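Input sequence (447 aa), recorded before submission:
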Amino acid sequence: MGKSDILIVGAGPAGMVAATTAKTYYPDKSITIIKSIKSGCIPCGIPYMFSSLKDPSDNKLKTDALEKKGVKVFIDQVISIDSEEKKVKTKNNKEYSYQKLILAIGSKPIVPPIDGIDKEGVFPIHKDMDYLKKAIAQIKKKKNVLVVGGGFIGVEFADEISNIEGIKVTLIEMRPHLLLNSFDREFSHLVEDKLKKKGVKVITGARAEKIVGSGKVEQVDLSDGRKIDAEGVILGIGACPNTDLAKDAGLDLSSKGGILVDEYMRSSDPNIFAVGDCSCKRDFFTRKAVPVMLASTATAEARVAGANLYKIKVVRENKGTIAVYSTYVDGLVLSSAGLTEENAQKESFEIITGQIEGMDKHPGTLPGAQKSIMKLVFSKQSGIILGGQVSCGMACAQLINLVGVAIQKRMSATELETLQMATHPYLTSSPTKYPVVLAAQEALKKE
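Predicted structure, token format:
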């Protein structure tokens, strides 16, 4: 039997960061990782394996640095957990004991019950380098590709595949607009227009009902009666927590999926932690379970777990998940954090919003300057920020991180109006027209 003080199941971003953090806080403890996939990949980089990266293998997620630090890494699959004996059993009939166990077993792609979904040419998105390389090679041979799902990953797949000469891309989303889970409609229109200008056929308000073909995909029938020619179908409709192992071990699960954990990522068994996509996420404001699956969230959870395995060393103040997203579509950058206006209203928050337009450099005539749009959502009575959305140039991603910090620290519109910041002509908007400040000011006018 293999012995390890800290045993981690899974070697995605969450598993790797958990190992690194645990090694930092508990250097005398032995750490072992068991991963079921020989060659993993960087999850956020998967769409860019189609065209942006010269070689899909450049998106490989490596464990070399961990192994150099003394972390043992084995390729195997854990099939059962004996929490009383504190040991796991693997597919290769091996057993490993542990003092503390971290489950970083991720998620699995959602495969909807569509007639014909099992035909050749349909590709769910698995985080397996060998699988993805084969899928990409096959997709590149197609003339017509349908991407199902208009969330972040679906939009990014459509954008990337449309860069490949000779392929016509159709993107279908069942909701009225793309990216509606994370953006209000004025931002959804921006990405829809961008994709259409690139030649992507964008269809919203419809779903795939049947995949037609004699063994292989030839056509997809939609709920609105349209028939789309396609030899390849990519399922970009999201994923669900991988919880079978935890369920069989008797751990408590959320009614909406995910392993139930406390603020320190401890499951119902105090010696078993769960981080990343497999763990339940609770909204920062409502505490409701939310299907947020982001590497950034996973690594934040992994740092909390890794630091607090034996004692509470890092007190967690962020008692909920702030969904902070960014996406890039052919030069268009969109970012979002917290609640959108539409989602805040659905949760019955009384809100005020501030929205402004400007330029992301100053003066706006500088080379590479782009139009920026910033929208902030505040609680009307308290003035506390609930969410924000922004579209601009490459500074967009860091700007939304500022909004994320403001949400986490529950900053008010007045505090943001008086924000002190660093600016530079090539790097930011003008200090006289800084987007966060002006959007806060616009909201305050409505109090």
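Checked by second reader. The chain has eleven helices and 26 strands.
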